[in-house]
Design goal:
The chain has 614 residues and is of the alpha/beta class. It contains 21 helices and ten strands. Helix 2 packs antiparallel against helix 5 and helix 20 crosses helix 21. About 1% of the residues have low confidence.
Length: 614
């Protein structure tokens, strides 16, 4: 029920639009019934009952609200009675015109409801998808190590698509179908209470069928949506790794794995569709059975001349109206099925929306406009899950100095930098900038002081100009060009067909590795940060590209506080301080020459790479 209210809340965010949908739907229900009731005079003409021969008295309104409806009905009957007695063909023509107008208005109002609900449903989908994406951008990095990106994309697409259907279903379920039921049942009771009593057997049977199918449908729908996440992940991994897949002749292996996931998804979704579509079919079958019972009972009453006021035209009208009673019942069954599917999707969406962001802004954050003195790690320990990745780290980095972090893979080097950028918060100890704990700082201000160049060049499917100016949309072209020159990127950019307006494709795949890295460096240069995090910035490059990129990095590091993470000892020889990490702990620190003289772990690393002290 909570999920239904949540969908309802999203829908009524656009109150005026939702109200228009409701009003048009209600008018559709009224004119739908009216278009059928107006056939009664036509049936009277055909049956030529005794009531037509008798002169009806002129109706009078008693002034009450309830009497208004009786007065309207009696006035219409009086008018039609007079017309039928005077000129039956004219009466028939009037009935045809009246029914046509009723049908016309019914469809106009139905289209009015569709017109407004089409915008309403897409506005709700837009809001939920935007809410999801905004939340995804604020989730901590370790969320993406635990969750498949494909599953997240699936939630933003297929799960949100189920909510789109539910927006229409919930309005119809609450406001249209119950009103249609009430109006139709009231009309049936007015026409024949005894036949109406017989017809009520359909309602409890339908409710039982709906509840049984609905519970089963929700479970199957959730399994199908989860499988869809795996399917999207499989597609993303396959397309993202196409070079390796082809190189290792793994096409059949990858396709085989995809086929298994695809087949499982197909079976689950087929099962869900069958369950969803079964509910209205069963209700229609039950309705047909009840209608045949009504035909038998009603026909028997007329044939036996039972004194119950049931005439041929009233009986046929009853059957016509009862057939319309099945539509809202089937609508309720279909909408409940859709809402049960949407409930499974809402559960999956809420798993993201309610996920703990972990890294949270302080209620009264300190503002950082400049970095003035030093960065201090004081007894910092951090763990992703159970085991600590960094243990009791204490170190001070003075402004303008370069610190290099070296050690084996998994020793905590990248985590050291991630904590400074507050991608994660420390579990123990404190991390301070200019004696202010970064947990108390504005996250935006903190990250404005930091520029990052990582091993993998993260670029976007946009122009070179837009990639360099990412996060700085107001940057002038002359500033962008100057940044590119410092990053040794201007020459190759100028040789491209469209220069700085060249689109570099998805993830920058139209450029070489060295070119992509220089674009990343230019982006960091344009930001002009006080603190630099260089995470294996040259490790994936060939020798020539490394030389050019290393020169660009040196230009970038000039007069800045830099934390350099490296595997190649040759890139950190000139650092002001070299820190050796092993299993999350600092085991050595000092200048290059001093560490070589100590003949410890750093010395062995340099030996392995044939780097000797000068």
């Amino acid at each position: 029920m909570k999920d239904f209210f949540e969908i309802y809340r999203y829908t009524f965010k656009y109150k005026s639009r939702a109200i228009l949908v409701i009003v048009f739907n209600l008018l559709f229900v009224v004119f739908n019934l009216l278009s059928l009731i107006l056939f009664i005079p036509f049936l009277q003409l055909i049956f030529q009952t005794e009531s037509l021969i008798q002169k009806l008295e002129t109706p009078h309104w008693n002034g009450s609200f309830t009497g208004l409806f009786s007065y309207a009905k009696d006035s219409y009957n009086y008018f039609m009675n007079e017309m039928i007695q005077n000129d039956p063909k004219q009466a028939l023509f009037f009935v045809c015109i009246s029914v046509f107008l009723a049908f016309l208005l019914k469809n106009i109002f139905r289209y009015g409801a569709v017109w407004h609900q089409s915008e309403l449903r897409m506005a709700v989908v837009r809001d939920i998808r935007a809410h999801l994406f905004h939340k995804a951008l604020h989730l901590p990095l370790n969320f993406y190590t635990n969750e498949r990106k494909g599953d997240l994309i699936s939630r933003m697409n297929s799960d949100v698509g189920e909510i789109e259907v539910a927006v229409v279903s919930i309005l119809e379920l609450i406001y249209r179908e119950p009103v249609a039921l009430i109006i139709n049942i009231t009309t049936l009771i007015y026409l024949s209470p005894s036949l109406t009593l017989i017809s009520f057997i359909l309602l409890p049977i339908s409710a039982f069928v709906i509840s049984r199918i609905g519970k089963s449908l929700k479970k199957t729908a959730k399994q199908g949506q989860e499988q869809m996440g795996m399917l999207v992940s499989s597609i993303e991994e396959g397309l993202g790794g196409i070079r390796i897949i082809k190189a290792f002749n793994g096409v059949q292996q990858v396709f085989g794995a995809f086929q298994k996931i695809n087949l499982t998804h197909q079976k689950l979704i087929t099962k869900a569709f069958r369950k969803r579509d079964l509910s209205p079919l069963l209700n229609e079958t039950l309705g047909a059975g009840v209608m045949l019972c009504l035909v038998w009972f009603g026909g028997s009453m007329i044939l036996d001349n039972t004194n119950n006021g049931l005439t041929g035209e009233v009986f046929i009208t009853f059957i016509i109206v009862f057939s319309q009673l099945l539509r809202p019942i089937q609508g309720i069954a279909t909408n409940i099925a859709s809402l049960n599917k949407a409930k499974a999707s809402m559960d999956r969406i809420n798993e993201i929306l309610n996920a703990d962001e972990i890294v949270k802004e302080s209620n009264t954050p300190s503002r950082i406009s400049n970095f003035n003195h030093s960065i201090r790690y004081e007894n910092v320990s951090f763990k992703y899950q159970d085991e600590f990745v960094l243990k009791n780290i204490s170190i001070e980095i003075e402004k303008g100095k370069t610190i290099a972090l070296v050690g084996e893979s998994g020793s905590g080097k990248s985590t050291f930098g991630d904590l400074l950028a507050r991608f994660y918060d420390v579990n123990e100890g404190s991390l301070l900038i200019d004696d202010v704990n970064i947990k108390d700082c504005s996250i935006n201000d903190l990250r404005n002081q930091i520029g990052i160049v990582s091993q993998e060049s993260i670029l976007f499917n946009a122009t070179i100009r837009e990639n360099i100016a990412f996060g700085m949309p107001n940057a002038r072209i002359d500033e962008i060009i100057e940044a590119a020159k410092i990053a040794n990127a201007h020459d190759f950019i100028s040789n491209l067909d469209k220069g700085y307006d060249t689109n570099i494709g998805e993830r920058g795949n139209k450029l070489s590795g060295g070119q992509k890295q220089r674009i990343s460096i230019a982006r960091a240069v344009l930001k002009n940060p006080s603190i630099l995090l260089l995470d294996e910035a040259t490790s994936a490059l060939d020798t020539e590209s490394e030389r050019v990129v290393q020169e660009a990095l040196e230009n970038l590091m000039n007069n800045r506080t830099s934390i350099v993470i490296a595997h190649r000892m040759s890139t950190v020889k000139n650092a002001d301080l070299i820190v050796v990490l092993s299993k999350g702990e600092i085991i050595e620190k000092g200048k290059h020459d001093d560490l070589i003289h100590n003949k410890g772990v750093y010395f062995k690393l340099c030996q392995m790479q044939n780097i000797l002290a000068e």
